[in-house]
Write a structure and sequence with these properties.
This protein has 13 helices and no strands. The protein is mainly α. The protein starts with a helix and ends in a 5-residue tail after the last helix.
Length: 354
């Protein structure tokens, strides 16, 4: 079976991808539940202190309702504030690029005299020819492409909506689901090893969830600090670039570098001083995050050294793309913890220290 899977690896990946696509609402539901459940617990604890006694089910329901209203409300307010500004920044950036292109065309002779080694004229002609060929060759694919994008957006919206609904059921039935999972683990585990297997699974869950949620909080703080710093330095497109930095910071080690590249490229087109200031600011933020903020929030949640973090990002990014760059570290950390546990137990049985 293993040989056939390796020999037909493309088919195996296609089947796994199809299976994950079908399960995406449940995957998102589990993710939303992990993220919102700590807030539900805090609200439930607060309600218990305010009105101790009966009504546990009603308190639980109210805790879930309040938590989801707060989370969805905050996200809605942020979207109402962020989306128009991002749209305006993208439009302004497009106009800037267009103005720069027009300037190069109208001042082509002058620029060629100042910087003859870049061959500006040939470059402009190449861009024109490339754009024309691209439009002419892909003109027939525009409608299918628009249909594909629209279909993907509808599917994503459906998955997110269903994920939110499923996450509510997961949170409400959290105790029952844990009890059922424990029964399955105990039923399938070797005799007298049930508790050990269960504790191992809990440890793996703690590693994965702890890193993922901690990294989200860390990235959000870095994104906010980036926005504040860019506003103080009066750098253009502050919100757009801070959002990019916030998202890419989810990728360990390489995230800040990946997030800095779009900003540096944009600022090089506008003003080289902006590019230098932005790069220096990202470097300072990276040092602050790597040496202070990250360790404070994440601690040693993965137990991985720098080598294994880079190794896991490289492997999983090759297998899963961008999601692999984000999820590769916690997934590999779980495997690493299991292997380390097995090796240490084997050494102890042989009377050897780890």
């Amino acid at each position: 079976i293993i040989f056939l899977m390796i020999a037909n690896w493309g088919v195996v990946l296609a089947v796994i991808g199809k299976f994950l696509t079908i399960l995406m609402p449940f995957i998102l539901g589990f993710f939303f539940a992990c993220f919102i459940n700590p807030l539900v617990k805090r609200v439930h604890s607060l309600l218990n202190r305010m009105k101790p006694g009966k009504g546990a089910k009603i308190k639980k329901a109210f805790s879930v309702i309040i938590s989801y209203v707060v989370v969805i409300g905050v996200i809605t307010v942020l979207l109402i504030y962020i989306i128009p500004q991002i749209k305006a920044s993208i439009g302004e950036l497009g106009n800037t690029i267009q103005d720069g292109y027009q300037y190069m065309i109208t001042h082509q002779k002058e620029l060629n005299e100042k910087i003859p080694f870049i061959g500006l004229g040939g470059g402009i002609e190449y861009i024109k020819e490339f754009a024309y060929k691209k439009i002419m060759s892909n003109g027939s694919e525009i409608i299918p492409y628009v249909y594909h994008v629209s279909s993907s957006l509808l599917t994503m919206s459906y998955n997110v909506l269903m994920g939110l609904v499923i996450s509510i059921y997961i949170i409400l039935d959290m105790k029952k689901l844990k009890r059922s999972a424990r029964k399955v683990v105990y039923a399938l585990s070797p005799k007298k090893k049930e508790q050990e297997v269960w504790e191992t699974m809990k440890q793996c869950s703690h590693i994965f969830n702890g890193f993922l949620i901690g990294k989200m909080i860390d990235s959000l703080i870095i994104g906010i600090l980036c926005l504040i710093a860019m506003s103080i330095l009066k750098l253009p497109y502050a919100l757009l670039l801070s959002l990019i930095v916030c998202i890419t910071n989810m990728i360990p080690y390489f995230g800040p570098i990946i997030g800095a590249i779009p900003g540096v490229m944009i600022y090089l087109f506008i003003d080289i001083r902006y590019a230098f200031i932005f790069a220096l600011m990202i470097l300072i933020l990276q040092q602050f995050d790597g040496n202070f903020l990250g360790p404070k929030i994440l601690g040693d949640s993965t137990g991985l050294s720098g080598f294994w973090i880079i190794f896991s990002i490289t492997i999983f990014s090759g297998l899963m793309g961008v999601p692999g760059m984000i999820l590769g570290v916690p997934i590999f950390a779980v495997f690493y913890a299991l292997i380390k546990r097995y090796v240490n137990r084997s050494l102890q049985k042989k009377g050897m220290s780890d």
